[in-house]
Amino acid sequence: MHSLFSTNMNIFEIILVILVAGILLHLRKTSKTSILRETRLSRIKEASLYMQAGIVVLFPLGIYWLVAFFFGWHFFGQGKVRVGISPNHIYASPGDMPETILVWWSVKMALGIFCYGVIFSLLRLYQKGILFSAKNIRRIYCLAYCLIADWFIDDRMQSSLQDEALSTTPVFVAFLIIFVAWVMGEARKIQEEQELTV
Q1: How many CB atoms lie within 10 A of CB 69?
Q2: 153: helix, coil or strand?
Q3: Bigger pLDDT: 155 vs 18
Q4: Integer Cα distance of 6 and 81 in angstroms
Q5: Closest by alpha carbon to 108, among 170, 57, 178?
Q6: SS3 for 168?
Q7: pLDDT tens, residue by residue, 165-195
Q8: Vertex 156, ends 155 and 159: CA angle to 5°?
Q9: pTM surpassing 0.85?
Q10: ∠ CA 2-8-13 to the nearest 5 degrees?
């Protein structure tokens, strides 16, 4: 009886040791995975912060360039700002532009400012560690549609000037971005469904 109890205790101890060892190995593996994940996430956050800083520096320069064009100012010692709509149509002031071109160009500049905001917002999400949310995907879609709108505006301006030398590459890139955003959205939904079933 004593030997049977002793044998049972040995088996119990072995099972307990195996369970504890398995848990420790799992925790160690999870810890390594967690550390690796945190390291990667930290790099994404840091890179996003640098990109935001770049936008914070470049945005005021872009606004100054725009204002300098409208008022005929010099742009940091480079002379007066000139705007090229096409190789054959370069303007030194808004007054030189035909009215239709000025309207389209103003819309293009407003679209550019909006895109700065969307990119900054996307980078803020990345900087917070939010990588695959619906918000991210909406912003990526928005940037692709802005690229298509920008191409359309360029097409309208060059058609008005009867000087079409427009590449379709931006439209192709925009559709590629839309496809990538769609794949990201579907992957996010699959991941959410898997998390719910587990």
Answers
A1: 20
A2: helix
A3: 155
A4: 92
A5: 170
A6: coil
A7: 677 888 889 999 999 889 888 888 887 777 7
A8: 80
A9: no
A10: 125
Q: Of the spans 7-16, 73-82, 153-162, which averages the highest pLDDT?
A: 153-162
Farthest-apart Cα atoms in the chain, separation: 107
Q: HSE (CB half, 13 Å, CA atoms) of 29?
A: 6
CA distances (Å), origin 44, targets 39, 41, 49, 136: 9, 5, 9, 14
Q: Where are the alpha helices (DSSP H) in the chain?
A: 2-71, 99-127, 134-160, 169-197
CA-based nearest residue to 146, from 106, 127, 119, 168: 119
160 near 104, Cβ under 8 Å? Answer: yes
Closest CA to 182 of 129, 141, 142: 141
- Residues 6 or more apart whose CB falls under 8 angstroms from that of 47 comprise 126
End-to-end CA, the chain: 45
Contacts of 121 (CB under 8 A, 6+ apart): 139
